[in-house]
From TrEMBL:
PANTHER family: HTH-TYPE TRANSCRIPTIONAL REGULATOR XRE, TRACRIPTIONAL REGULATORY PROTEIN-RELATED-RELATED
Residue ranges constituting the HTH cro/C1-type domain according to the UniProt record: 9-63
Name of this protein: Helix-turn-helix domain-containing protein
Keywords: DNA-binding
Keyword hit for Nucleotide-binding: no
Species annotation: Hominenteromicrobium mulieris
A molecular function GO annotation: DNA binding
InterPro entries cross-referenced by the UniProt entry: Cro/C1-type_HTH, Lambda_DNA-bd_dom_sf
SUPFAM superfamilies: lambda repressor-like DNA-binding domains (SSF47413)
């Protein structure tokens, strides 16, 4: 059994506010055995995996960490006429980011705060600017006139503005004002969950789940 199963098994139970004792009884096993499964001490059989997936309303693939989508849907990348290299990885990566941004800005639209949207846009724009400038300046033959900020200052200034934008966003989301920027009211914050995102953004949610999974896997490796 992989290491994702105990973590997801525990997460699903806690998300639904079910005690370990009740979950064990509902699944037809002892609490001690369920505790061993959740800690990764013992491996379970296929019948338990199927029973548990039905119990929590998820797919077996999700339960085993094989897909970030709770219903087991695969990431769909629409075909384009562009010819990609490296087995299509640039296209897949681009669609994952692009689709995920649709959801980020969809949530910002729900919150309806111009100040918050401005700061998060600045944060995201800074990441794109840094990535493009790094690629552009890697070749010394490319004309430097495209940028006004000196190369030695650019990254530090952009990173600083990104950190400030993130800090302002966090403060506003806590319901506090930042200078003349408006605070975000708690009642304006939408209720979010994997199920809600899948239902409201069916074409884009798998990409966001893939982005989250990929990023957290990188965290584990570093």
């Amino acid at each position: 059994m992989n290491s994702d199963f105990p973590r997801i098994l525990t997460l699903l139970r806690k998300e639904q506010g079910i005690s370990q004792k009740k979950a064990a009884a509902d699944l037809g096993i002892s609490q001690a055995l369920l505790s061993h499964y959740e800690k990764g001490i013992r491996e379970c059989g296929l019948d338990f995996i199927v029973r548990t997936a039905d119990y929590y309303g998820v797919s077996c693939d999700y339960l085993l960490g094989k897909t970030p989508h709770r219903q087991g849907e695969k990431l769909h990348v629409p075909e384009t006429e562009e010819e990609d290299t490296h087995d299509g990885l640039p296209n897949v990566s681009r669609k994952i980011i692009s689709n995920s941004l649709h959801i980020v800005f969809g949530i910002l639209k729900k919150i309806n705060s111009k100040s918050l949207t401005k700061e998060i846009t600045l944060y995201l724009s800074g990441a794109v600017y840094n990535a493009f400038r790094m690629l552009y300046t890697a070749n010394p033959k490319n004309p430097s006139a495209l940028f006004e900020t000196k190369d030695g200052l650019s990254e530090a200034l952009t990173d600083g503005r990104m950190q400030l934008a993130r800090a302002k966003s966090r403060v506003m989301l806590l319901g506090e004002k930042v200078s003349d920027d408006e605070a975000v009211k708690k009642d304006d914050l939408p209720q979010l969950s994997g199920e809600m995102l899948s239902a409201e953004y069916p074409d884009w949610a798998p990409s966001l789940f893939a982005l989250i999974e990929n990023t957290e896997n990188e965290h584990k490796e570093n």
